[in-house]
Amino acid sequence: MLRDAMSASPATNALRFAPGEMPQDAETNPLVDVDPTPSSAGLVLAPKAMEELNEIVEERDHIDKLQLAGVAPTRTLLLSGPPGVGKSLAARWLAEHIDLPLVSLDLASVVSSYLGSSGRNIKSVLHYAQTGPCVLLLDEFDAVAKRRDDDTDIGELKRIVNVLLVELDRWSETSLLVAATNHPQLLDPAIGRRFDRWIDLALPGPQERRLILGHLANDQSDSTVLDIVSDLLDGVSGSEIVRVWELAKRRSILRGSSIDDELLEEVLWRHTEPGPVRDRAWLLASSRLGLSARQIAHRAHVTHPTVSAALRRQKELTNG
């Protein structure tokens, strides 16, 4: 396997972790963050996206078979999608499962802080990531890989695109380069074509939201509550689900209350559209939190008869 071959490589080919050997800015601050043993606990993606990530790991585990056929493994990967869907965590997942250190560079901060030497800094990071096997994460990729026909950008950013084009073309199969962007439409078309794979990560669907909540709850919550909360959090990112859970957990500790109750209190009033999801949520607010129809109406900013009718409908459905 690739990881066995890497462990047998001479020490000179190992990624250099010493602070003095890592790429630095003009003020001798490290440009990258290096995690020798990345962990990706809690990653939940749509089945198709997970299938592609697993394929990349399988390629690395059977690289000898690919090489015998004259085929290279995936060397470069572009991850796109809205904020909070798991792009950075997916890079960590790859590094963990390929058993390689993770080298991370936030391109937006490099450009904003060191504009005059951005190209040189980025190039030094790319070269550093090939001193030994690793997974290199280029976060906020659209900060530098913008379309070269954008007249609002200064010349240096356009020169950086040219640097990236060259580096992507000759990227070694020993390391895996992962670029992440929230705005793929801003990327220069020539950049997009240079990646071996492009995986678009969508907001979590019903199954993914429920899996995230189940992982956070660790079988300690009422499944009915988690089902309702999952429905009420439709359209939010995985990171937002984690944020809501952590908020409910803190409140439950401070108030000595049930985390399920705090979770319901936090999300119950987010869903205002009439329908089964809202009806089930209101019934749970009545049965579990002990809220009257008038209290629910006040918090949901609807009329009392609206709540009463919704509760009646849901009870009829529940009772068959």
Question: What does this molecule look like?
Answer:
With 320 residues, the protein is an alpha/beta fold. It folds into two domains: 2-200, 3-Layer(aba) Sandwich (Rossmann fold); 206-318, no CATH class. It has helices at residues 2-7, 47-61, 63-68, 87-98, 107-113, 118-128, 155-169, 189-192, 206-217, 223-232, 238-255, 259-267, 276-287, 293-300, 304-318, and strands at 33-35, 76-80, 102-106, 135-139, 176-181, 197-200. Strands 1-3-4-5-2-6 form a six-stranded mixed β-sheet. α6 (118-128) runs parallel beside α7 and α10 crosses α13 (276-287). Residues 1-12 have low confidence and may be disordered.
As residue ranges, the low-confidence spans are 1-12
State the strand order across the main sheet: 1-3-4-5-2-6
Q: What is CATH's topology name of the largest domain?
A: Rossmann fold
Assembly context of the chains: single chain
Number of helices: 15
- State the secondary-structure class: alpha/beta
Overall average pLDDT: 86
What share of residues is helical?
40-55%
Question: In CATH terms, what is the architecture of the largest domain?
Answer: 3-Layer(aba) Sandwich
- Spatial extent as radius of gyration: 24 Å
Whole-number tally of structural domains: 2
Shape: elongated
Q: Which superfamily, in CATH terms, is the homologous superfamily of the largest domain?
A: P-loop containing nucleotide triphosphate hydrolases
The largest pleated sheet is described as: 6 strands, mixed
Strand/helix succession: HEHHEHEHHEHEHEHHHHHHH
How far the N terminus sits from the C terminus, by CA atoms, comes to 57 Å
Family: Belongs to the AAA ATPase family.
Keywords: ATP-binding, Nucleotide-binding
GO molecular function: ATP binding; ATP hydrolysis activity
InterPro entries: 26S_Proteasome_ATPase (IPR050221), AAA+_ATPase (IPR003593), ATPase_AAA_core (IPR003959), P-loop_NTPase (IPR027417)
